[in-house]
Amino acid sequence: MHQRRKAREVALQVLYELDVLDIGAKEAISIFWKYFGAPEECKKFSTLLIEGTCDKIEEIDSLISSCSDNWSLSRMSRVDRNILRMAVYELSYCSDIPPKVTLNEAIDLGKLYGSENSGSFINGILDAVYLKLYKEETNQNISGLTGSSRS
Question: What's the pLDDT at 2?
Fold first, then answer.
């Protein structure tokens, strides 16, 4: 699992770069790997996180915005914003990763790379995102069960 932690750190760095520069994800990934090395497993997972987050950025930003009272995305620090984006991508699209792992990893990244308040800020927003995603999933499952039992 150490490789996944490293991959998340790489993904955060590249997502931050994308937030600052006007370049595409593939170019940013290529530039990063030109100067830094990592095991293949790390490269694969970080690329999945970066490209997946970039591909779903509008949906992810909308979900974060709907769960962050009094905080627009533009007011958030770039570090916090990109940790949230990456974590929301994991929660939404990486069903093989337990949500608790995603939340803990995001909070730890916030504590390591963000401000002194980043860990609790990220925790609060991701808790709301998780509840929203879980509630929607549960409602869909219940609707599906209800609909099928009436047939």
Answer: 85
Q: Is 70 left (phi over 0), alpha (psi -120 to 50) or beta?
A: left
Token pair belonging to 110: 């916030």
Mean pLDDT value across the chain: 90
Can you list the domains of the chain with their CATH numbers? Answer: 2-143 (1.10.940.10)
pTM over 0.85: yes
Contact 78, 20 (CB under 8 A): yes
- Taking the C-alpha atoms of residue 74 and residue 93, their distance in angstroms, rounded to an integer, is 24
Do 14 and 46 touch, CB atoms closer than 8 A?
yes
Distances (CA, A) of 32 to 19, 29, 80, 150: 15, 5, 20, 55
- Among 29-38, 58-67, 141-150, whose mean pLDDT is lowest? 141-150
